[in-house]
Specification:
By secondary structure, the chain is mainly alpha-helical. It is built from 14 helices and two strands, in the order H-H-E-E-H-H-H-H-H-H-H-H-H-H-H-H. It has helices spanning 2-8, 17-63, 81-87, 90-122, 128-140, 143-153, 160-166, 182-207, 211-219, 224-235, 237-252, 256-261, 273-282, 287-316; strands at 66-68, 75-77. Strands 1-2 form a two-stranded antiparallel ribbon. Strand 1 (66-68) and strand 2 form a beta hairpin. Helix 3 packs across helix 14 (287-316) and helix 8 (182-207) runs antiparallel to helix 11. The radius of gyration is 28 Å and the shape is flat.
Length: 317
């Protein structure tokens, strides 16, 4: 028993009562400083996170199983009926197809272009600061302003694009009211807006590459393509993973561009789940269907992000 006490309180050995009390006080202060103080400092952020993320997410999931009339406040349990209605809705099927096309034809070109532009900017010498600023300008422009600007550029009568095409004998094209071109325009605007952020992220990744590795590859006789394939790209794999995930999530969240430019038309050619969610909630006042769409989108983004991260980790290994 004495040995156990000695192991538990080693500071008691050869110390008087006052010194033992001082040691205990010092131990408590150290424990508080290392563990409890950081925990207390995280409490405000934790409360904020619980109030504005966890609770709304759980409440939205709960509402997806109910019929909630936001005008009267009446809530009645409906089970899976909201999900059944949404999954059998042809408009939702069209919006999901549009979103898949938008994700594929926005994410792949956007990541490839961002990486190429980032490499070119880093090799531009003194001009790279100006180029970085220029490429980032679309990001800081309001999405509403961007949408109205593109509406003006693509106007069938006064748009710059149609005026240039008319010089070559091409008839004016209704870019935003033609089902064949409307979604393509939204994709182009998405790539244009996303370039700035992704280029900056890739530039940050390129700056983290060891110069010794690059010099060693050059000494070994590797050309630029081989250096990119075996040194540059593997070194920024984590940045590529992050850019891929954030780009896909931003594609899921596209709303303002559609609202300003096309309102989901023509004939639902540019409708997306987030825009349909807004319509269900604030045009048709069907919060049950709206929250069921948001829940399905949340699950889809979560699963897709986990798959991408797992595959990227395997590729890095």
């Amino acid at each position: 028993m004495e040995k156990v006490n000695e192991l538990q309180l080693p500071f008691n050995r050869g110390l008087n009562e006052e010194e033992t009390r001082a040691c205990r006080t010092s131990t408590v202060k150290t424990f508080f400083r290392k563990f409890w103080l950081p925990t207390l400092m995280l409490v405000p952020a934790g409360v904020f996170y619980m109030m504005f993320f966890v609770y709304p997410t759980l409440h939205s999931f709960y509402l997806s199983f109910n019929d909630w009339n936001i005008l009267t406040g009446a809530i009645s349990f409906e089970g899976l009926s909201n999900y059944k209605e949404v999954l059998s809705d042809p408009v939702f099927h069209q919006s999901v197809r549009n979103m898949i096309v938008y994700i594929i034809f926005t994410t792949i070109p956007l990541i490839a272009l961002s990486l190429i532009i980032a490499i070119l900017i880093e090799n531009c010498g003194p001009a790279k600061g100006i180029l970085r600023t220029a490429i980032y300008i679309p990001v800081i422009i309001s999405m509403s302003v961007s949408g109205m600007m593109w509406q003006f550029i693509l106007s069938p009568t006064t748009g710059i694009v149609n005026q240039v095409l008319s010089m070559f004998g091409v008839e004016p094209i209704s870019w935003l009211t033609d089902t064949r071109t409307a979604l393509g325009v939204i994709i182009v605007v998405g790539i244009w807006r996303g370039l700035g952020t992704n280029v900056v992220l890739f530039i940050a990744g390129l700056k983290g590459i060891s110069k010794e590795q690059l010099e060693a590859a050059k000494i070994d006789g590797a050309n630029r393509l081989q250096i990119f394939r075996y040194v540059t790209f593997p070194s920024i794999s984590y940045v590529t993973s992050f850019v891929t995930i954030t780009t896909i999530i931003s594609c899921f969240q596209i709303f303002t561009t559609i609202q300003v430019m096309t309102m989901g038309g023509p004939n639902n050619a540019t409708n997306m789940p987030v825009f349909q969610l807004w319509q269900e909630a604030f045009q048709f006042f069907d919060m049950g269907r709206a929250t069921s769409i948001s829940t399905m989108m949340f699950i889809a983004i979560l699963i897709l992000s986990m798959i991408i991260m797992r595959r990227m980790e395997k590729a890095n290994d």
